[in-house]
Amino acid sequence: MNISVLKNQLKNKMPVIREWLDTIIVATLLALFIRSFIVQPFKIPTGSMRETLLEGDRIFVNRFIYGLRIPFTDIRIFKFNYPQKGDVIVFNYPEDIKRAYIKRMIGKGGDVVEIKDGRVYVNSKEFNNPAVRNIYYYNRGDYGLINQKITVPKDSYFVLGDNSHTSKDSRYWGFVPDKYLIGKAFLIYWPLNRIRVIK
Q1: Are residues 48 and 33 in the same domain?
Q2: Do 176 and 97 belong together in one domain?
């Protein structure tokens, strides 16, 4: 086959190749935008949130509900809501911000949290969220001692794992700064027999 024929064939295929490349680039940019600003998938690695979330569950996290974080900064814009007590939140672990953690938000800035006789009290009232009603909370760590009342700092959150026996949470390492929030966990999408809204 001579070179001029090859050149003509390649010239004829160029528009198709360019169209495919354009489609791939647009799809990649769209996927990155959705993952960075709207919804991000996560896999649950440990049992710290049993029975709400099991090891291996794959979940979707709403990234924009608590405000869109401008990439590579701590600046948030378009804040639609603040974490509510009882929300299951995903955040950068304060002791290693490259790692994402998932826990239940119990108290926000200014709240006074106490763990007593297996129950959690916020501002002297029992934390009476339906999702945690049957959980026994253990007094553990520097921030979860018996007869200890902890005041949550401004722009921070106190979080606990639903599996209180094994969870390394605010009882051990303290508080989650607002700037470390990633989003709110809202759906288990895999495995199929576990599909459900996260409460």
Answers
A1: no
A2: yes
Band the pLDDT of 128: cuts 50, 70, 90. confident
- 94 and 189 in a single domain? The answer is yes
The set of catalytic residues is 48, 103
Residue type, 128: N
Distance from chain centroid for Cα 39: 10
Say whether pTM exceeds 0.85: no
Residues 122 and 62 in one domain: yes
Contact 185, 88 (CB under 8 A): yes
User: CA–CA distance from 101 to each of 116, 168, 169 (Å)?
Assistant: 25, 10, 9
Q: How far apart are CA 52 and CA 26, in angstroms?
A: 37
Same domain, residue pair 66 and 32: no
